[in-house]
Amino acid sequence: MASTSNRTSGGSFYGGAAPYRSREGLSTRPVASSDEIQLRIDPMHADLDDEITGLRSQVKQLRNVAQEIGSEAKFQKDFLDQLQMTVIKAQAGVKNNIRKLNKSIIKHGSNHIVHVVLFALFCFFVVYMWSKLSRR
């Protein structure tokens, strides 16, 4: 058995990776293509029914995990679609309000600059009077 000597010598089948062994009766061996794995069953050490049952349960678990991943991905996609629609509606609302504000400023005039200048002059006057009164 070449795989037995390879297993015991610490070598590997796939360039440094340890060989896959599920139980005593099953072992992998290298093939020409890296995508393929050949499984060799040693009938002397294998209890095939246990191996098949174990593989079936693992396949069922993997199928359940894959279904859960699929349902979670669908839920996340739906959530992102709803979030995207909410953001689009919010952007449209902000754009509409800015347009209304611009129309209002144009219609009623832009006296806000005059108000800011008058407020600044008032603040300087208050600080000036406060400094005059604090020197006495």
UniProtKB/TrEMBL annotation:
It is a single-pass type IV membrane protein. Keywords: Coiled coil, Endoplasmic reticulum, Golgi apparatus, Membrane, Protein transport, Transmembrane, Transmembrane helix, Transport. Residues 42-104 form the T-SNARE coiled-coil homology domain. It is found in: Endoplasmic reticulum membrane; Golgi apparatus membrane. Its main location: endoplasmic reticulum. The keyword Cytoplasm does not apply. The chain crosses the membrane at residues 112-130. Residues 1-31 are annotated as: Disordered. Residues 1-11 have a biased composition (Polar residues). GO terms for biological process: protein transport. One of its GO terms (cellular component) is endoplasmic reticulum membrane. Required for vesicular transport from the ER to the Golgi complex. Functions as a SNARE associated with ER-derived vesicles. Belongs to the BET1 family. This is Bet1-like protein At4g14600. It comes from Herrania umbratica. The lineage of its organism: Eukaryota, Viridiplantae, Streptophyta, Embryophyta, Tracheophyta.
